[in-house]
Amino acid sequence: MEHRVFVHYKGLTGPMWIDTYLRENVGEFGKHWWSQCVTDAWDSNTNCYYFEDSHTAQKFEMICKLRDSDVV
Q1: Given Cys at both, which of 18, 38, 56, 68 links 51, Cβ 3.0 to 4.6 Å?
Q2: How far apart are CA 59 and CA 45, in angstroms?
Q3: Is the pLDDT at 69 greater than 90, yes or no?
Q4: What distance in Å separates the CA atoms of residue 21 and residue 63, rounded to the nearest whole number?
Q5: pLDDT at residue 70 tops 60
Q6: Per-residue pLDDT tens for 1-58?
Q7: For residue 44, which of 11, 14, 70, 67 has the smallest C-alpha distance?
Q8: How does DSSP classify residue 60?
Q9: Range of the domain at 57
Q10: Going by DSSP bridges, is the β-strand pair 3-10/33-37 parallel, antiparallel, or unpaired?
Q11: What pLDDT is recorded for position 71?
């Protein structure tokens, strides 16, 4: 999985809608997409989401921006 999107969020738990959205619209975790927490802090954290193609990654990044997640 070559294409990635970083999602920054406050607190210890990432936005709850993300996993549901990805399962319904991208496919099975581990097969079509994958994620990992890349920071571990009390105030804010970052998850990295990996995708097979750039189109899916770009679409996910845009949806995060529209849903008001702080995406870099």
Answers
A1: 56
A2: 22
A3: no
A4: 10
A5: no
A6: 899 999 988 888 888 899 999 999 999 999 999 999 998 788 889 999 999 999 999 9
A7: 11
A8: H
A9: 3-71
A10: unpaired
A11: 46
Q: How many residues does the chain have?
A: 72
For residues 47-62, one letter each, b for 16 or more C-beta atoms within 10 angstroms of the residue's C-beta and e for the rest, the string is: bebebbeeebbeebbe
Q: How many domains does the structure of the chain reveal?
A: 1
Task: Give the number of other CB atoms < 10 A from CB of residue 23.
Answer: 13
Any alpha helices (H) in the chain, and if so which ranges? 17-25, 54-66
Assign residue 42 the CATH number of its domain: 3.30.70
pTM: 0.85
Phi, psi dihedral angles at 37 (to 5 degrees) = -80, 130
